[in-house]
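Q: How would the C-alpha cells look for this protein?
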Amino acid sequence: MSATVADALDRLDAMAVERGVELRADVPVAPLTTLRVGGRADRMAVPETLDDLVATVNLAREAGVPAFLLGKGSDLVVADAGIRGLVVRVRADAATIDGTTLVADAGASMTALAKRCAAAGLAGFDWAISIPGTVGGAVWANAGAHGGEMAHVVREVEVLGHDGERLRLGPEECAFAYRDSRFKHGEEVVLRARIGLEPGDPDAIRALVDGHHAHRRATQPLADQNAGSVFRNPPGDHAGRLIEAAGLKGHRVGTARVSDLHANFIVTDRGGRAADVRDLGDHVRATVAERFGVELRYEIAFVGEWPEASE
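A: Here is the predicted structure in C-alpha cell form.
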C-alpha cells in the first residue's frame, strides 16, 4: 500500500470515528460475491438506509478514499489483490407499490421484487426474476433478460451526484444502452428507482415468473460458483453459441472453467483465483476473434487492484 493511500485511509478512519460511521478493516470480499474469488477490502462499511449510504459515500469522498458500491456481488470479478479504499455494501432495500408504480431503494433484490410485483398483479417486471442482483446494480448496467430490461420500465432514478447532492434523473437522462448507462462512466451513485408497470392478471404473471425461473435453473450453472453471463451478446448473435462453436465448453485455466451447461458462464473451484477467471476469459475472447472475427465484450466487471484493465 502506498503512503498516499495509507494517509487517506487514516483520514477516513479518523473522520468515521468523529461522525459515528462504523468501518471494518481488511475484510474478505470473495464470500460477498457469487463467483467467490478475490482478495480483501482495505475498509468496509454497511449502511442500512439511503441517508446512511449518502453519508458514507460523502465521507469517503471528503477523505479522498475511493468508494466501491457492492450489492449482491453478481456480475463482477474481484482481483486477487483485493480492493483499495472503501467497499460500501448497499443494504438499503425499502420498496413500495402505489398503483402501477414501484419505488425501490438501490439495495432491493430484483428477484424478490419480481415476485412481489407478480403477487400485486403488476405486469412488465417478470423478467427480473432472472436478475440475481439489486436495483442499483440493475440500473447501473441496464440489466435485462427474456426481452425485458431496465430501460423499458425505469421512469426516474434518484442519484448521489459527484458534488454530494441528491438528484432526480428522467430515463432520457440515464443514457441507457445495451447493458450500459451513464452511471458506468461517472461518479454518480444510484440511490433509488421509480419503475412504471402495467396492471395484469396475477396468475398469468406468476406463470411467466415461474417459467423464467425454471428456464434459468435448466440452462445456467446455478449450482456452481459463477458471476453470470461473462460476455455481452454481439449484434445478431449469442456469445454462448460462438464460444460453444469454438469448442471451448469445459476448457479450463487453473481454477476456472467454461461451464459445460452454458458456454457464456465461467465457473470456479472452491478457493479459486480471480487471475484464472480473467486469463480464461481473455483466452475465450482471443479464440472467438480468431475463429469467427467477432470481438466479444465483457459483461462482467473486473474490480479492484488488477495489473491492467480488461476491455
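Residues 147 and 247 are 28 Å apart (CA to CA).

The longest strand covers residues 189-196.

Upvote if useful.
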